[in-house]
Amino acid sequence: MNHYDVVIVGAGISGVSAAVHLQKMCPDKTFKILEARDAVGGTWDLFRYPGIRSDSDMHTLGFAFKPWTEAKSIADGPNILKYVNETTDEFGLRNKIQLGSKVKKAEWSSEDQNWLLTIEKSDGGGEQMTCGFISMCGGYYNYEEPHDPGFEMDAYEGQILHPQFWPEDLDYAGKKVVVIGSGATAMTLVPNMADRGAHVTMVQRSPTYVVSRPDQDKIANTLRKWLPDSWAYAMTRFKNTQLQGYFYRRTRVAPGWVKKKLLDGVRAAIGEELTEKHFTPSYNPWDQRLCLIPNGDLYRAINRGDVEVRTEQIDSFVKEGLKLQNGEVLPADIIVTATGLKLIVLSGVEFSVDGEVVDPAQSFSYKGMMYSGVPNMSQTFGYINASWTLRADLTSEYVCRLLNYMDEIGMTSVTPTLRDEDQGMEVRPWIDDFPAGYMTRSMHLFPKQGEGPWRNTQDFAADKKMVRKQPIADSALVFAKASVAKKEVEQELAATGS
Predict the structure, then answer these.
(1) Do 2-144+342-489 and 159-337 come out as alike in CATH topology?
(2) 100, 226, 310, 395 — which has fewest CB within 10 A?
(3) 391 within 8 A of 477, measured Cβ to Cβ
(4) Domain locations along the chain
């Protein structure tokens, strides 16, 4: 049975970040990346719908250790996938990745001080391996099953699609398309399908805040003309994280002012009537996620007449299309259900510790990266108010520091453990004060957060100080090592060749 010091689950942005940091900071550690799918790239290989792109700038969604050098900072999916694959090859990770390998179970043994992993292969086979530490980097949503809003669709005679399973050969030019949803996916699909010849109607239950920004960062592109790529990238990354943090804080302390600024931008693009009817949410900015549209592409499509917006509840699917509660029927050749993601905890892996199955919902988040009562396991979960990779890189750094500290003190396991002083602390959801539907539907499945080290701050500046400045040693961390007797037996068996 193969054994590795670290197994990384997932070969997307998070997994590649974890692997590169291990190579740099823990060069003596052996590791393997297990990827359930048959390709590297995670999200950026999975999604293939028209216009797939990031709504975060690539100077913060990119890795801290590899400059983004393309002119566009709001990049499309294929270019992001290319970047992830370039990083994989540049750092020699390809032979560390085992594709088509889905981890089904992870069983911790305190006696053996390691994890036993049960792996399901895409070719129908299976495998087991052991590791000392497991780094969960598989993202936070279910690749196999999107959110089902419960529509009864049988009466409709056209084609129904979900963006997560987009057919590559779909021809929609000249067709009437109804897109249900107003999140980031819908905001991407709608103008792109319209640009390629479709007439699109976007149906939303309620408005979403929409922000238009240029897809190129002029400052970043200017800096690269005069400075080395690494310097220009670092400066742009710092600039953008500061601006993101400032903007988010303003939404917390001056939501009315931020709301006015956002809506003024929409009014300037499409006028007062459409803004009030379809783009003025009932909640404050960043109570739910904002949607970014590059270069005002959605507004241009609306002004051309290629896109219409309906803010209305859905009554039913009918033979010819979609019926709204106001009685209007929207004829459609294609209906796209961009109705959101279904979240999944720990990639659906069944964890157990010394024979006891782990229920994540009964645990507490340790610094947003580990679970109480679960040894030698970290999870990468990005920010809801900033780019995912900012948190992924910090998590990778922290895990490497933790592994090195354990080597220094001669310990083989670490378990976040609730202390006496933690009893009775205020208990809050894993993600607090963010009532977006895709989050609230699944928060009961995630660990809780509390006070002190049991917080999941969603604060990049605070997390950066915690990861890079604070000592690893913490009264909430319990370290252990394999028994001396067990080691002596293993050494004797090895010496005799048994």
Answers:
(1) yes
(2) 226
(3) no
(4) 2-144+342-489, 159-337
**Which token pair is 105?**
């179970």
Q: Tell me, yes or no, if the pTM score tops 0.70.
A: yes
Helices 255-270 and 297-304 cross at an angle (nearest 10°) of: 40
- 42-73 confidence digits (pLDDT tens): 999 999 999 999 989 999 999 999 999 999 99
Sole residue written with tokens 């390691």: 114
Q: Which CATH superfamily is domain 159-337 in?
A: FAD/NAD(P)-binding domain (3.50.50.60)
State how far the Cα of 41 lies from the Cα of 80, in Å rounded to an integer: 9
DSSP characters for 302-364? HHHTSEEEEE--EEEEETTEEEETTS-EEE-SEEEE-----B-SGGG-EEEETTEEP-GGGSB
DSSP-assigned letter for residue 428? B
Q: Which residues contact 162 (CB under 8 A, 6 or more apart)?
A: 146, 336, 337, 338, 339
Domain made up of 2-144+342-489: CATH architecture:
3-Layer(bba) Sandwich (3.50)
DSSP per-residue letters across 128-186: EEEEEEEEE-S-SB-SS---------TT--SEEE-GGG--TT---TT-EEEEE--SHHH
**Cβ atoms within 10 Å of 178's Cβ, excluding its own:** 24
Q: How far apart are CA 243 and CA 463, in angstroms?
A: 17
Cβ–Cβ < 8 Å for 344, 103 = no
Calpha distance 337→161 (Å, rounded): 6
Q: Distances in Å between the alpha carbon of 330 and those of 14, 15, 102, 327?
A: 41, 43, 42, 10
Among candidate residues 439, 76, 450, the one with its CA nearest the CA of residue 286: 439
Residue 240: the pLDDT is: 94
Query: Residue 238 phi/psi, 5° resolution?
Result: -65, -45
Least confident of 63-77, 98-112, 338-352: 338-352
Cα gap 9→106, rounded to integer Å: 11
Residue among 221, 219, 216, 213 at smallest CA distance from 297: 213
Pairing state of beta strands 126-136 and 114-121?
antiparallel
**CA atoms of 85 and 70, how far apart (whole Å):** 15
The single-letter DSSP state of residue 447 is: P
* Average pLDDT for the chain: 92
Query: How many residues does this entry show for the chain?
Result: 498
The total of other beta-carbon atoms located within 10 Å of residue 410's CB is 8
**Which of the four pLDDT bands, split at 50, 70 and 90, describes residue 490?**
low
